[in-house]
Every structure is written in C-alpha cells, then in structure tokens.
Amino acid sequence: MPGSLNVRDLDDDLIARLKRRAARHGRSTEAEHREILRQALMTEEEAGFDDLAAEFRALTKGRRHTPAEALLREGREER
C-alpha cells in the first residue's frame, strides 16, 4: 500500500538542488525524491537476528535481568 511522507524545514538551496537534479533526470521533484530514498535504502543492509541480539545485549549490559523461566513460572502461577 503506497504511503505518503512530508519532509519539512528543508533549506531553500537543498530544494533548488533537488529540482535541478530532477530536471537533469527528466523526472518530477517528487519522483526524484522517491528515487533518492530508494537508492539510499537499497544499499543499506538489514541487520540479521544475531546482529540485533548482540546490539541489544550490549545496550543492556550490566542491567539486572529476570530469567525467562522465572517469568514463565510466574505467569503460570497467576492462572
């Protein structure tokens, strides 16, 4: 389902450069904006589960954690 995105507070110079670039490529400014976003995100790799888990462990390092089995047991006892 196509969505919509508004970008606010762009510098006038940036807008003018976008318009010139769009004209060079024979596209509307909006189409050029879409193409720039598509290209930028196409080259970005999605992080895999292992990478995300390692990042989460690093962010929560040193914090106290409740073991999953304790949470499961607690949930069962509440029923």
UniProtKB/TrEMBL annotation:
Pfam families noted in UniProt: FitA-like_RHH
Matches recorded under Gene3D superfamilies: Met repressor-like
Species whose genome carries this gene: Azospirillum doebereinerae
Designated name of the protein: Antitoxin FitA-like ribbon-helix-helix domain-containing protein
One GO BP annotation of this record: regulation of DNA-templated transcription
Sequence ranges assigned to domain Antitoxin FitA-like ribbon-helix-helix in this UniProt record: 4-41
